[in-house]
# Entry
Amino acid sequence: MFNKVKHLKNKELFIALYFLVFIFGISLNISSNFYNEARIFEILLLLVFWLYSVFKKENKIGIYDFLFIIFLIIFYLFKDNSTYIIFELLLFYLLYKIFFVLNYNSEISKILLFSGFFVFLMLPFSVLNYINTGFYNNWYPMPWNIRVYNSYFLVLSIIAVWFYLKEEKFKNIYLLFIFLAFLSILLDGGRSAALAYSMFVAGICIFNRAIRFKLLFTYCFTCLIYLLIMYSSSNFGSEMSSIVRETTSGRYELWINALQCWLQSPLFGCGFYQLDQYSGVIPAHPHNLFIQVLTETGLIGFGFLILVIWNILKRIKWNFKENYFVISAFIAVTIELSFSGIHIYPVTQIALLWLFIFLLKNPEFKHAAYFNQQLNQPSKSNFWASFLIYILIAIVFINLFLSTSALSESLPSTPPRFWEYGYQLF
# Structure
């Protein structure tokens, strides 16, 4: 018991604390808007991690860091609407740097899994009410976009399958979490998360005979329960969104519109844009991470993303029989990022950060040796460069927190980006 408590005394525990606020629907009233409050917590969490790494000399500044900063300066000077996207670029940079600071901790992941059951407390009551009345209530602790919960369940389901595969205790509890998570995704009509999860389960079942039957049975049983719920409530003419829909929700139109925007400035992109040519809504992102990075930051910004992806892919052993779990999980993540806009939300960004730490730094995987390798002590000049960059980024974000109008109550409703009201940074 003492060893477990001692094992939890590390910086990664703050990741669990961040998610506990989300799981229990806690608001500290820092902002009048829970979305913006979660964004503040996210930035402060990342800044604390980086500050820790600077003084522990675990963070080095390399040539790619300087190139990225130069790109930001040029982007800021030559793009008319650069202010709107600069903060998101800095945020993605923070997430990238913090990946190298954090270590995988299985106890933290278990805390997230077991505490995640509290999210499902109201699900049975909502389902019963839906069957009896045909009206499906939003049962989540906070009024987030339901896709945030769907993507969060996808991340935790991947980790739950891993524990079911490796752990001897609590196997049925892990299966129960997988069942509840996938059922909620189906009931919400979360097609991107459902498709991603289905491909992940298919990959696991193909290459692992030991858990194939029970995992596939759980998957099919969840689908059956979902169909029974839909059938039982059909007499009420319910309008709840089904996972089986005939439309694309405008994805194709959004992608075409975004690419047309990119063609106006292929090298640096068109910056923060509003896809106002798509009638009916005012989407602020094309629901595809790769297209969004390309169209907003151009070939240069997209090149940084490709460089990060390439550095990951070349370290992984592409042997499905030996590394099927990681490969299946990356396929699932790629699918969801290609059809969903979840990466704009603070909670799902931290969830994806923890998932990448799990997939790349878990000592159970051979490639973890590379991603966990100890860096050489930075030189004195490198230390001060890292500290100076940290101070500058911290000042930028703190100034944004103090001067932005996004923390006030009287703002028009616009699509979410850095703040929920993404077009009004100041």
Summary: The chain has a mean pLDDT of 84. The two ends are 50 Å apart (CA to CA). The longest helix spans residues 289-313. The chain has 17 helices and no strands.
